[in-house]
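Reproducibility note. Readers wishing to regenerate the assembly model reported in the main text can use the exact inputs given here. Chain order matters: entities are listed in the order in which they were concatenated for prediction.
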Amino acid sequence: MNGSSAAGSNSRSRAGGAPYPLNQWYAAAFSDEVTRKPLARTLLDRQVVLYRTEGGDPVALIDRCIHRKAPLSQGAVVGDAIECPFHGMKFGPDGVCISIPCQDKVPPNAIVQSFPVVDRHGHIWIWMGDPASADPAEIPDTHWLNDPSLTAVKGYFHLKCNYLTAIDNLLDDTHLPFVHRNSIGTPKMVGAPIDIEGGDDWVAFSRWTLDTPPSPVHAKAGGFTTNVDRWFMVKYVKPSTVLIDVGSAPIGTGAPAGDRSKGISLFSNGTVTPGEGNSCFYFWHTARNFSLGDAGMSDLLKSEMTKTFLEDVEIVEMVQRNVDSDEEDLPQLMIAGDAVALRARRIIASLLASESLSSGA
Amino acid sequence: MNGSSAAGSNSRSRAGGAPYPLNQWYAAAFSDEVTRKPLARTLLDRQVVLYRTEGGDPVALIDRCIHRKAPLSQGAVVGDAIECPFHGMKFGPDGVCISIPCQDKVPPNAIVQSFPVVDRHGHIWIWMGDPASADPAEIPDTHWLNDPSLTAVKGYFHLKCNYLTAIDNLLDDTHLPFVHRNSIGTPKMVGAPIDIEGGDDWVAFSRWTLDTPPSPVHAKAGGFTTNVDRWFMVKYVKPSTVLIDVGSAPIGTGAPAGDRSKGISLFSNGTVTPGEGNSCFYFWHTARNFSLGDAGMSDLLKSEMTKTFLEDVEIVEMVQRNVDSDEEDLPQLMIAGDAVALRARRIIASLLASESLSSGA
Amino acid sequence: MNGSSAAGSNSRSRAGGAPYPLNQWYAAAFSDEVTRKPLARTLLDRQVVLYRTEGGDPVALIDRCIHRKAPLSQGAVVGDAIECPFHGMKFGPDGVCISIPCQDKVPPNAIVQSFPVVDRHGHIWIWMGDPASADPAEIPDTHWLNDPSLTAVKGYFHLKCNYLTAIDNLLDDTHLPFVHRNSIGTPKMVGAPIDIEGGDDWVAFSRWTLDTPPSPVHAKAGGFTTNVDRWFMVKYVKPSTVLIDVGSAPIGTGAPAGDRSKGISLFSNGTVTPGEGNSCFYFWHTARNFSLGDAGMSDLLKSEMTKTFLEDVEIVEMVQRNVDSDEEDLPQLMIAGDAVALRARRIIASLLASESLSSGA
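Running the prediction on these inputs yields the following structure tokens for the assembly.
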């Protein structure tokens, strides 16, 4: 984790996007995306370049040279520094310039902003707010992604919707029988009762759908020939991570009473990071406790989950377009399926309010 | 014709387009475009979904679910209702929600706006203003389109120009020798005198061009071997429909005196509906009184009229781009050929003014 | 050179681009681009149509008809006039309308703006400010382009960056070892001393890089087998022209002392004209004093120079995008290589200031 040279500004969104809390850890990338080759990504409305030092530490700098604003990400990583493609100025992991080819001296203000980053649980986490407040203990626990007792597949989407719409969608399972009728939906789900619990910075719910035909994806993955009991346990943790423990077990094998060993479990995580304007990055993985290391099963699940998420992408992007283009600003009628998402939105609103207070804005 | 649950707003244009009167009937589609499969179309800056009930009645609803604003047009028609693709809420022809799958009760405010629609003369007409004022007797008469004694071809364009520019073009025949020199233009036309007459909500003109070579299209359709007398009789009716009775007859066969039986007549209608911003839908048909039911003649005329209209599309879209991008706001010099269009514009201005008055704006 | 009917407005940029002096000669096109076929080009944020009269004189008119703003450039040149494609109105070289087909009289205000233009040194130069101040003696001297003792290749780019960014780049040779490392860059250049001199409306510098391996392009063009002495002599003249005298000669053949006869000389000119918003036209040529008339050498140089300029295009357009999208408005740190560009920017600022004064703005 590298220090940062300057505090983030207090403005919390740009280009008309939804506001987001700044003093939080967000996933910038999967760990394996950040290498010795620079990676450019616009996060929280700021252009960032990510790379690794010779020792393997991740680095995040603002992706604009202090000179002419050329993108550093188009240059080369040289030792622990990155070289601007325009005039060859080199900047170290802390953003401080160490060389200007056309002159002998490097002035003390030749610095680009650096951001605290941490490599944990398969993601590179970035902190784009006040670096003095960056505490790695607050990084969301997404350990399922690289848990050695599970086998995971993963991917990401750059969604043309804001991060709130993406989180809403992850916390609402009542769209499954409609949007995902051919993948993970189960018609009976929407009638089953749910339990909700939560705290200051989290909210969770569980829904058991008993004695139901398995969803198309669970049927393929688990090879079920009878009806199943299906569980759906979802936990939101601030600012924008959703952990999903979902599975099915043949009826009569005791899953509702606690024995899920005859079924299949999928431990998924979705973590959402605001991008530019009303766009966001949605990083997902699905880890399983069966067919461990089986490449064929990994291919099947990666393909099925990608297909399923593309169904979400289509609908959330249509919804965002309609919200954005609605100059009448028609009200939205909230329904039962929004209960958990509304609690998550209240947590985010409270994070935003406390940042407003602390900045005096 | 279905009732509507809410009055339209008083704002008459959005996204920078030209203002238009709201309390008018506009063509939403050709009758045969509206089926049991939902049709999405943005009319008067509002997203609308059109479909038919099991009994065949046309329905027009706002194309945004009351819940998350998802487009209903992406869902399925089920019985007389349309089902939202996101969470399965169903709305009847009057816009009232009849089912919310994730909850037992449907609250009384679960309604989307519906619009009066009428299926007449080959078009579905929509009224997007105050539904209490919607009187089907005011629907423009475009009966030529499905007159059994004529054979018609038809089509539509979604033009990137505002509806006024499209109407101007339909009411000005002095561009024919230039824009349409290779299709329906006749050089001598611009020199021929015109008669103009009109009333509160209409204006018409006629122009006879005597003893002139036929236009390329008339020559092909009528097989003329001599010069012709050409008539051009155009009538605008509010808010945006133009009826065109045009034809040619060999010289000396008495057409100017009233006997057009030796020539060919084409009865065309152009009706224009504001779309989103500076765009509009231009629905056209051309009905003929010769070669009735002859598929080869229909193909010829459809192809020639489409080619001709594409010449218009090119020029009116260039003009709209130039008007929109003219930050100097250069004045426009009106010329003789604009006389009829200017009268139509005055009628539209007076419709707009009376709506302003009645809304107190 | 045709007169102009109206003074330009005092606004000096539109659509968010950088301001530019209006009362200056700018290159509108290469001489051979302007023919009897109309050429449309947006210069200094105004749409212009260029063509030649029957006698060969260049004509520049605003490319919007006074009637409906249709683009004259889509019409035909007829005699010395241009005919509007929409209704056939004809305008002479002075912008005065000479015919309106649908009416007998031409009103006195039927005029489109014309601009002074001069055909000189291989370019058509246009004056878009106050025509009373247009003095052809102030046209920049780019005679290398059609000097009979040299052989030139040429081309142009429509850059998505403003004209200042393009000029900055031409006046800064310290980017060559980075942006052009595989074409015209020489690593040792950035360490070599430069001499700067200048006046009220020009600034020049020269840099000798001694005993250096030749750049890849010079090596190919000159066939050098030893190290060379390389010169780089650059002169900016207002408002936006840069003359570049560059070459290499084998070491020990006396080039630094004045005898360049054993080497190769390339006389290049770059002249930049503001386009629409933050875009500009960059006209370049490279004339040589060797292999005169050799088509193979012309092909080689045209291909190598184009490749080199495309390296510039890529970086200056990235820089412009970053400057435009930088809502934080981060400061830019100037470095040694910016010295000459900063002096040129001061000359332009002073031209802008004096126009402000004279317009009372």
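We highlight two features of this model. Residues 295-324 of chain A form the longest helix (30 residues). Residues 1-11 of chain A have pLDDT under 50 and may be disordered.
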